[in-house]
C-alpha cells in the first residue's frame, strides 16, 4: 500500500516551503531596497556656461522652442500661459504618473535650495547627455537629448544660469516596489547613440533638418511607432501610427500621422505648405504634440525639417 504523508506532515511541509519563499522574497526586497537608488559612474562633460547674450538667446530659443524643455518644466498652473505664447519661468512641478510611481519635472531656475543653483555645469550637462540625474541616479526616461551638439548644451546651460532664481520646491519622486525593482535591476542610463557633434548643423539642408527633428525636437519619438512600455522603435522611421491616450473631438484616440513620403500629408505637401501647416499650429486641443514650441521656429529650420523628411 502506498504511504501518504499524514495530514500533519503535509501542513508542516507547506509551512516550511512558505517560510522559505518568504525568506527569498524578503532577501529580494532587501536587495531592491539597497540597489534602487544606485548611482552610475557617468563622466561629467567638460562643457561650461557662457555669459554672452547671443549664446543665452540661443539657449532660450531652444528651451521654449524646438527642444521644448518648457513644456514639462513650467509650473502646471502656467501651462495655459505657455500655450498662449508666453514664456513662464521653468520652476518645475509637472507630474508624471507611470504605473510604477510619480515623477516631477525639476525646477530649472538657479535657486540654490530648490533649483539647479548648487549643481555644477558638468552635472547639468550630464543630465542631458548622460541620462543620469545630478546625483548620478538614473533619470526618469522623459528626456532624449543625448546627441545634442556641444554648443547647444552650452547654450542651454548659459540660458538656465541666466534666469532669475525662483524658490519653488518640487516633490521628490515616489516609486512603488515594482518601480524600485525596475530601477534596481532594469534601467540603465541612456548614452549617446553616436558621438555628438561639437557644433549644431545649421542651414536649411536635410542634415540640419535631421539634427533638429531627431535630436533637438524629438519628432521621431512620436512619429515612429514604438513600444510604449519599453520605448523601443518597432515601426519604420517616421511611419507614424503611435496611438496616444489623448482623444480628439469625436472621442477617438489621437494617432500620429506618417511623415515619411509615400502616404499621409507629406505625400502631397510642398515645402511652403509644410511650413504654413506648422505655423498654423494646434488643430486638436488635446494633441500631445507641442505645436506651440514648434510653430515659431524660423522658416530656415522648418524648411530643413521638410527636406529631411522628404529625403527619407
Ligand atoms: C517630456 C518632459 C520633459 C522635457 C521635454 C524635458 N524634461 Fe527635464 N525633466 C523631466 C522630468 C520628469 C524630470 C525629473 C526626472 C527624475 O527625477 O528622474 C526632469 C529633470 C530635469 C533635470 C534635473 C535632473 C536632476 O538632476 O534631478 C534637468 C537639469 C532637466 N530636466 C533639464 C531639461 C532640459 C534642459 C530640457 C530641454 C532641453 C528638459 N529638461 C526637457 C521632464 C522633461
Ligand atoms: C509628443 C508627440 C509628438 C511630437 C514630439 C511631434 N509630433 Fe507631430 N504629431 C503628433 C500627433 C499625435 C499628431 C496628430 C494630431 C495633431 O495633428 O496634432 C501630429 C501631427 C503632425 C503633423 C500633421 C498635421 C496635420 O495637419 O495633418 C505634422 C506635419 C507633424 N505632426 C510634424 C511634426 C514635426 C515636424 C515634429 C518635430 C518638430 C513633430 N511633429 C513632433 C505627435 C507628435
UniProtKB/TrEMBL annotation:
<protein>
    <recommendedName>
        <fullName>Cytochrome c domain-containing protein</fullName>
    </recommendedName>
</protein>
<dbReference type="InterPro" id="IPR036909">
    <property type="entry name" value="Cyt_c-like_dom_sf"/>
</dbReference>
<dbReference type="InterPro" id="IPR009056">
    <property type="entry name" value="Cyt_c-like_dom"/>
</dbReference>
<dbReference type="GO" id="GO:0020037">
    <property type="term" value="F:heme binding"/>
</dbReference>
<keyword id="KW-0408">Iron</keyword>
<dbReference type="GO" id="GO:0009055">
    <property type="term" value="F:electron transfer activity"/>
</dbReference>
<feature type="domain" description="Cytochrome c">
    <location>
        <begin position="54"/>
        <end position="164"/>
    </location>
</feature>
<dbReference type="InterPro" id="IPR051459">
    <property type="entry name" value="Cytochrome_c-type_DH"/>
</dbReference>
<feature type="domain" description="Cytochrome c">
    <location>
        <begin position="204"/>
        <end position="312"/>
    </location>
</feature>
<keyword id="KW-0349">Heme</keyword>
<dbReference type="GO" id="GO:0046872">
    <property type="term" value="F:metal ion binding"/>
</dbReference>
<keyword id="KW-0479">Metal-binding</keyword>
